[in-house]
Amino acid sequence: MKNTIDENIKNIIEKKLVVLFVDKSQMLINEIFLMLHNTQDEWETKFAYSGNEALEIIRKTKIDIVISDIDLPEMDGIHLLAEIKRSHPKTICVLMSENNYDKQNKAIDYFLRKPLSLDKLKKIILNPVDFLDKNKIRLFILKMDKMPTIPSLYLKLQDIMKSEDFSFNEIAKIIENDVTMTAKILQYVNSAYFGLRYRIYDILHAVTYLGLETLKSIILTLNVFCEFTDEEMEKFSIQNLYNHSLRVSCLVSSIIQITATEDRSAEESIVAGMLHDIGKLIFIKNKPEIYTEIFQINKDKGTPLHTLENQYFGVNHAEVGSFLTEIWGFSPNLIDAINKHHNPHNALKPPLNINSAVYIANILDHDSDSREITDEYEKIQNYLDKINQMQNLSVWCSLIDNLKKNSGISLN
Ligand SMILES: [Fe+2]
Ligand SMILES: [Fe+2]
Questions:
Q1: Is the pLDDT of residue 315 over 50?
Q2: 209 CA distance to ligand 1 middle (Å)
Q3: C-alpha 277 to ligand 1 mean position (Å)
Q4: Which ligand number lies closest to the CA of residue 321?
Q5: Residues bordering ligand 1, an ion, CB closer than 5 Å
Q6: What pLDDT, on the 0 to 100 scale, is given for residue 139?
Q7: From ligand 2's centre to the CA of 276, what distance in Å?
Q8: How far is ligand 1, taken at its centre, from the CA of residue 192, in Å?
Q9: Ligand 2 centroid to residue 241 C-alpha, Å
């Protein structure tokens, strides 16, 4: 996959793009032509009014991008793009329609909502590297057979929360039907991560204390982490990754509460920490052999996992995880925090936000065993100094140390 995408990017940069528009409306084709005629030096346009006409053109000419309306005479746009993808797999297939199209379809690389604007078209045609870069994650994920599913309990809660008059009692009753999940939620809320001075014995109290978003994320996280066999758990240290995620979550929430000038969403920060490495689980589940190799190099040489993932897959766990949370409908803040949790350039910009907090918490947790001054640690020191938060660094390091002394929460 990586080679195909890289080759595609290289080919596209080096030559003029050929774009084929397919639409039954002469008026729209004229509009597109007028809209784009000033940019003809950078690419070449071709037009077809039906699926068969488009296939005829593509048989004779090499086309880089096909942008087709969904509604065509003879064959619809979806069948046309499927046929093109089958015979010309490197061609970028874009479907356009007046209505949303949110079905997963391996033939469609991109969806454009009509009416078209020059900006929308430019995004694809004039910026193919960005386009491919964005879509490489989508393409990678589409290749994965074992994607984490949203548990039915989560969906039930989501449904109830849509109605305006739902009660916490109702929510608690539904969760209580799932005995295992009830036990795990109570274990979590009473753990060192929350440092409660009292014990919570019933799920209603836990729901009220945690908040609904945190609760839903615990259900989601546990569901994803528990989908592994004993062998996988052992081989990829899934329990360690789970405890790492919980510590990061706890620290992110503390950082946000103490420092954030803007983003003060406590629930979002807990969730971001908990799910920041979820992309790793997708690699482990779908590419266990390659990930075993990656894991070993990481252990032996200390090369960061996200660097190795980029080398082996062309995408990393931060990108894959953020894409998954985007599909799951999480907030843009949260998706961004997951996406950039290894990117100091984005994360270490004032003002401190959830993205910064996840970046910092992740480094502090990883570095806490040796407490050596790494490059990343120094970057954090400089950043905190710049935003006058340096006094908190030792507090956060102690928090992580204390949580590490604790045995964590068992997944079994
Ligand atoms: Fe990570
Ligand atoms: Fe992490």
A1: yes
A2: 28
A3: 5
A4: 1
A5: 277
A6: 60
A7: 6
A8: 23
A9: 8
**229-412: CATH number:** 1.10.3210.10
The hierarchical CATH code for the domain 2-142 is: 3.40.50.2300
Would you kindly state where each structural domain of the chain is located, as residue ranges? 2-142, 148-227, 229-412
pLDDT of residue 133: 61
Distance 317 CA to ligand 2 centre (A): 10
The answer on pLDDT for 356 being more than 90 is: yes
For the cut 50, the answer to whether the pLDDT of residue 9 exceeds it is no
Q: What is the pLDDT of residues 159-180, one digit of tens each?
A: 888 887 889 999 999 999 999 8
Of the chain, the percentage scoring pLDDT greater than 70 comes to 86
Give 300 Cα–ligand 2 centroid separation in angstroms: 18
**341 CA → ligand 2 middle, Å:** 8
What ligand has the least distance to the C-alpha of 273?
2
Cα of 252 from ligand 2 centre, angstroms? 12
**2-142 with 229-412: one CATH topology?**
no
Residue with tokens 């040796």: 370
